[in-house]
Automatic annotation (TrEMBL):
Domain Ig-like: 149-230, 244-326, 337-409, 425-508, 540-633
Membrane topology: Single-pass type I membrane protein
Protein name as it appears in the record: V-set and immunoglobulin domain-containing protein 10-like 2
Primary location recorded for the protein, binned into one broad class: membrane
PANTHER family: NEPHRIN, V-SET AND IMMUNOGLOBULIN DOMAIN-CONTAINING PROTEIN 10-LIKE 2
Keyword field: Disulfide bond, Glycoprotein, Immunoglobulin domain, Membrane, Repeat, Signal, Transmembrane, Transmembrane helix
Pfam families in the cross-refs: fn3, I-set, Ig_3
Matching PROSITE patterns: FN3, IG_LIKE
Domain Fibronectin type-III residue range list: 664-766
Source organism of the structure: Hirundo rustica rustica
Segments passing through the bilayer: 768-795
Cellular location(s): Membrane
Length: 811
């Protein structure tokens, strides 16, 4: 409070002077000595303030009267009056707050803003046995605390570069007010005052706004009473997208882009700063392949090479940016490098060739010989792409030397290799002659297989003239049999780069001319080595059994083979039937099996007497033709215990005649043949016709329903140990999807009778009566059980169905 002397107020009137003597109780009043004081006081709304009447050290007034004049008004209003303990508060004083008067001091609790104004205290103060009149004026100022501020931006989201302002407002608060701002990053962190904007203004201007201004903003308001802080408000600065940055993993940069190996996993990542975050789209050679920031390519293929574009889009600003890279996919050639060695320079040198075509980039190849250092740097002398050739001198190369072709490629960290070993085959060349059918041409064949490179063979005549073209490993010379080949000699010369001297073999056709004795080689002389002896070409010789016997229905095997010196001539072998027709493969009746010097003829399902007769085996070469007859006899019953009854006979020695055997057993007739229900078994019954001795029965089966061009299946034994008194048998092991045919034969020791007629099994009878009966009984049992349960339920729950209960249980 501020106190001071002042003249009596102009509104002091006689009404107060009339009142004070009455309150004084008859004590003398010193009116002329009235004092006046004036001071200032400050209060806060909602709090309490005390206004004293006179100095604090003075005695309290005997009588006091308080009045109030609001700020800006001229008429005073009574507030309270008191004398001692008697106090009266004016009814309108509640506008000032909660008013109490004690010992002349006016206390205002829960102070209101309306209490701001002039309070006047008029009192009678006892002093030396008299009453002194005193006046005190208090100028009360009511302060209002600052309310909680709130921040209002011009826009919740603004584009980068635009002007943005944030305004901090309060509903109430006594001025002067001061403002302070705090900024916090979007993802947390300490609050800082924006650089250059930390003044005390109520408006925060961000001109122009940038992406660093994104975040939370807080405003704090101060006055002399208090300070309040607003709730944080988020300001979103929209920007971007910036130019994308593409990252490739694994990181393998090269000039103009990136590279990766085929079948390698490649991950492409794109980053373009943007708010809101960018939407990423990946393009491969202009076509969309993925949506998302990361594009993973599993086991990349060569077709996935090319340009990859990352397209970043800001959906709020409708802006786009993009970046493009070139991705090269390296892939090695297919397979592995191949190495070969060929003779060159007229058999003096060896051309080592390494080949590995394809791939990207081309594979680098280089040859490495024995005891040569393997350098690993690229760009070596002697290396080339896709194909590499090295000429190796044969004279300077040892037999068994190995050479390697090393291949390097960016997609193969360990590279690849192939190799070859140069060697000369052991031994010497071999000569042989072969003739075509009909004695039209003679083929001279020279062989010397093996070696790297292969041996080169040439045919020459006795005069040294070259015949035909040189060939590797095998040289064939075809000559026309015009009658001038008899006695002529031919030489096969073999050459190899690693062999200093050539090797040869000789062949003489027809009868050999007398040749001079071989010249022995002497030690220390340069005489030539003796030539190998010439081979002769002979008429083919054949061998075969003179007679073959078979039971009717069996298979007869006629074997014929070539022997002697003419076997190497390559004669044409053939069989002729009893009608002098050449047997060819294909018909169901015959089967031919042929090798280089043999041919076998099989006669299926031999018939009596149609297949009996003389069969002829022939062999033809350049010298002549040989023929050998073989008799085939088909018997209806066996005459010798050495023959078999199960579809064939045992071979007999040449020139052997059959003697009398066991008598034929009786014929057999099938009386019943039926499938079981599962079609995996059959029930077979038969009976015999006529008299005859027998020791057992044999049941045979085979498949039916073969294609038209396919011969029927051979008979196979289904049961062969049936006692002579048995007339039925149950046979299993059948395939339900296959239709079978059966027949029965009676056997007398090793003599088989005529087979029965062929029958197929009948379908099993329909046996539904047991199933139908069982289903009916089961249904009756189920119905009876359900009826009993229903009756039991009605008996226990009478109230639920009373009528039905009375109907059933009335009696």
């Amino acid at each position: 409070m501020e106190r001071g002397r002042a003249p009596p107020p102009p509104w002091r009137g006689p009404w107060i002077l009339c009142l004070l003597p009455a309150l004084a109780g008859g004590q003398p009043l010193a009116a002329g000595e009235a004092a006046y004081e004036e001071w200032r006081a400050t209060g806060v709304r909602g709090r309490a303030v005390e206004l004293s009447c006179g100095p604090a050290a003075a005695a309290p007034p005997a009588v006091v009267f308080w009045s109030f004049t609001p700020q800006g008004e001229g008429l005073p209003r009574a507030v309270a009056v008191g004398s001692g303990r008697e106090v009266a508060v004016a009814p309108g004083a509640r506008l000032l707050g909660r008013v109490t008067l004690r010992n002349g001091t006016l206390e205002l609790r829960e102070l209101r803003v309306f209490a701001q104004g002039r309070f006047l205290c008029q009192g009678l103060f006892p002093e030396r046995g008299r009453l002194r009149v005193g006046y005190a004026a208090v100028l009360l100022r009511v302060l209002v605390p600052v309310s909680k501020p709130f921040v209002r931006p011009t826009a919740a989201a603004a584009a980068e570069g635009a002007a943005v302002a944030l305004t901090c407002s309060v509903r109430e608060g006594t001025e002067p007010l001061s403002f302070s701002w705090q900024h916090q990053e979007p993802r947390g962190g300490p609050s800082v005052t924006p650089a250059g904007l930390g003044d005390s203004r109520a408006e925060l201007r961000l001109t122009p706004a940038n992406r660093s201004h994104t975040g939370w903003y807080i405003c704090t308001v101060h006055n002399e009473v208090n300070n309040q802080t607003s709730d944080p408000i988020y300001l979103d600065i929209v920007y971007g997208p910036d130019e994308p940055a593409i990252r490739v993993e694994p990181f393998s940069p090269e000039q103009g882009g990136f590279s990766a190996g085929e079948r390698e996993d490649v991950v492409l990542s794109c980053l373009a700063p943007s708010n809101p975050p960018s939407r990423y789209v990946w393009l491969h050679n202009g076509s969309q392949v993925h949506v998302g920031q990361t594009y993973a390519i599993t086991a990349i293929a060569r077709a996935q090479a090319g340009t990859y574009t990352c397209l970043a889009e800001n959906s709020h600003l409708q802006t786009r940016t993009q970046a493009t890279i070139v991705l090269t996919v390296y892939y090695p050639p297919a397979g592995s490098p191949s190495c070969s060695a060929l003779a060159s320079e007229d058999q003096r040198d060896v051309a080592l060739r390494c080949r590995w075509l394809g791939g990207f980039p081309l594979a680098r190849l280089r040859w490495v010989g024995p005891q040569e250092e393997e350098e690993e740097e690229e760009g070596l002398m002697g290396s080339s792409f896709s194909m590499a050739t090295r000429i190796q001198s044969g004279a300077a190369t040892r037999n068994g030397s190995s050479f390697s072709c090393l291949a390097s490629h960016p997609a193969l960290p360990l590279g690849a290799a192939c190799g070859t070993t140069l060697w000369v085959p052991s031994g010497s060349p071999t000569c042989a002659a072969a003739a075509t059918k009909g004695d039209e041409y003679v083929m001279l064949r020279c062989r010397w297989e093996g070696g790297t490179p292969l041996v080169t063979l040439r045919w020459r005549d006795a005069a040294g003239r070259t015949l035909g073209d040189p060939a590797a490993s095998t040289a064939v010379l075809v000559l026309s049999t015009d009658g001038s080949l008899g006695g002529r000699e031919f030489v096969c010369v073999a050459a190899h780069p690693l062999r200093a001297a050539a090797a040869e073999c000789r062949l003489r056709l027809g009868k050999p001319d007398p040749s001079p004795p071989p010249v022995p080689r002497r030690v220390g002389t340069s005489l030539p080595e003796p030539s190998p002896p010439c081979r002769r070409v002979e008429v083919p010789e054949l061998e075969a059994e003179s007679e073959v016997a078979v039971l009717e229905g069996g298979e007869a095997q006629l074997a014929c083979r070539q022997r002697g010196s003419g076997a190497g001539l390559g004669a044409a072998l053939a069989w002729y039937d009893p009608k002098e027709r050449e047997v060819t493969p294909g018909p169901a009746k015959y089967r031919l099996e042929q090798g280089e010097a043999w041919v076998n003829l099989t006669v299926r399902d031999a018939e009596w007497p149609g297949d009996s007769g003389i069969y002829r085996c022939t062999a033809t070469n350049a010298v002549g033709t040989a023929s050998l007859p073989v008799r085939l006899r088909v018997d209806r019953e066996s005459r010798d215990g050495r023959q078999g009854w199960a579809g064939g006979i045992e071979p007999l020695p040449a020139g052997c005649r059959l003697s009398a055997g066991y008598p034929a057993p009786p014929n057999v007739t099938i009386s019943k043949l039926r499938y079981t229900r599962a079609r995996t078994e059959v029930r077979l019954e038969w009976r015999t016709q006529g008299a005859g001795n027998l020791t057992g029965f044999v049941v045979q089966r085979r498949q039916t329903k073969k294609p038209l061009r396919e011969p029927p299946s051979p008979w196979e034994t289904a049961a062969g140990d049936i006692e002579p008194h048995s007339r039925d048998r149950r046979l299993g092991g059948l395939d339900p999807a296959v239709l079978y045919a059966f027949r029965v034969l009676a056997v007398n020791h090793r003599t088989a009778g005529h087979p029965s007629e062929v029958q197929t099994p009948a379908e099993p009878p329909f046996e539904a009566y047991p199933a139908v009966t069982g289903a009916a009984v089961a249904g009756m049992l189920v119905a009876t059980a359900a009826s009993l349960l229903a009756v039991h339920c009605l008996a226990r729950h009478r109230d639920a169905l009373p009528r039905l209960h009375d109907l059933l249980f009335r009696t």
